[in-house]
């Protein structure tokens, strides 16, 4: 019996998925256990326990992010300087891979959808990482989230908001929801920004990396892990934005981000025989409700 080249590549892909999934799971569990162990001595420091735990969590998230990206074959190119601690940051949102990418460069407290808390394994990990869960359906819940954001800022954490309130396929940046920017506007806090984009050589990053379709989480994760390499560009804005009105603040942030954003292609680049250039068909914006929205 002979094995065709197609069967060989399919088998190699599944072996890659299994190896990366196992490595990622083991690495994540080990870092989480070490973080919990590092928190034990903080019971001796009643007044500064929260600050000490936040510092240990930032270090653990940086180590976790870098190790996980190495395990799954993601290379990150950083342009600009990360914002300082104790600041609000906004970003476009392309999928769950954004979380380790950002943490590998600038450990951050994320604002995520409330139902992520109930996800097996991932929910407790998100809580351990200091995630602020938001239920956008009620005004009272949003007010509580804003209060927790201010508490995180006081601990010198960066707080990251995805104002699109969903993940997309990366064809564009959707209009922003401004509710979580209200305190920044009212208190005159500068809001920093960054953009994320992905490329997957030989594959469609808009479909295989971005989680902007109706594909289930497990199926999408398997497709992502099967990719040989993922390239990410993380671009930080040069200057933060200040505005006294939250809607004006949201509009200006999006305007600046659109000027720096490189859209993600939905199809693998194809050679143009006449020019030698590489191009890709444009994709329609797609969106789904991501747990990190």
Describe what this molecule looks like in 3D:
This protein is of the alpha/beta class. It is 43% helix and 16% strand. The chain contains nine helices and eleven strands. It has a seven-stranded mixed β-sheet with strand order 1-8-7-2-5-3-4, with helices on both faces. A two-stranded antiparallel sheet has the order 6-11. Helix 4 (122-128) links the parallel strand 3 (108-113) and strand 4. Helix 1 (5-39) runs antiparallel to helix 2 (49-72). Residues 271-289 have low confidence and may be disordered.
Write the layout of secondary structure elements.
Layout: H1 5-39, H2 49-72, E1 74-79, E2 88-91, H3 98-105, E3 108-113, H4 122-128, E4 132-134, H5 139-154, E5 158-161, E6 167-168, H6 182-187, E7 191-199, H7 205-208, H8 217-226, E8 230-236, H9 246-260, E9 270-271, E10 278-279, E11 287-288
Parallel strand pairs: 1-8, 2-5, 2-7, 3-4, 3-5
Antiparallel strand pairs: 6-11, 7-8, 9-10
Helix pairs in contact: 1-2, 1-8, 2-3
């Amino acid at each position: 019996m002979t094995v065709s080249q197609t069967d060989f590549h399919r088998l190699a892909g599944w072996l890659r998925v299994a190896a990366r999934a196992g490595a990622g799971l083991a690495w994540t569990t080990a870092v989480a256990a070490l973080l919990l162990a590092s928190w034990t001595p903080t019971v001796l420091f009643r007044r500064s326990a929260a600050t000490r735990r936040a510092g240990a969590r930032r270090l653990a998230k940086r180590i976790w992010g870098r190790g996980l990206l190495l395990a799954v074959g993601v290379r990150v190119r950083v342009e600009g300087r990360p914002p300082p601690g104790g600041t609000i940051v906004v970003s476009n949102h392309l999928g769950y891979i954004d979380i380790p990418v950002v943490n590998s460069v600038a450990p951050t407290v994320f604002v995520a959808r409330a139902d992520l808390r109930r996800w097996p394994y991932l929910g407790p990990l998100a809580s351990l990482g200091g995630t602020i869960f938001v239920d956008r359906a009620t005004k009272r819940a949003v007010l509580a989230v804003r209060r927790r954001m201010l508490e995180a800022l006081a601990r010198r954490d960066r707080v990251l908001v995805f104002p699109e309130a969903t993940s997309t396929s990366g064809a564009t940046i959707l209009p922003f929801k401004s509710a979580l920017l209200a305190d920044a506007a009212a208190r005159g806090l500068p809001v920093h920004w960054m953009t994320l984009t992905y490329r997957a050589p030989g594959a469609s990053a808009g479909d295989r990396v971005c989680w902007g379709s109706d594909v289930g989480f497990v199926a999408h994760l398997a497709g992502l892990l099967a990719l040989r390499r993922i390239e990410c560009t993380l671009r930080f804005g040069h200057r933060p934005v200040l505005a006294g009105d939250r809607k004006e603040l949201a509009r200006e942030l999006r305007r600046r981000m659109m000027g720096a954003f490189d859209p993600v292609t939905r199809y693998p680049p194809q050679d143009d025989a006449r020019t030698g250039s590489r191009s890709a068909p444009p994709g329609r914006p797609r969106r789904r409700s991501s747990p990190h929205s």
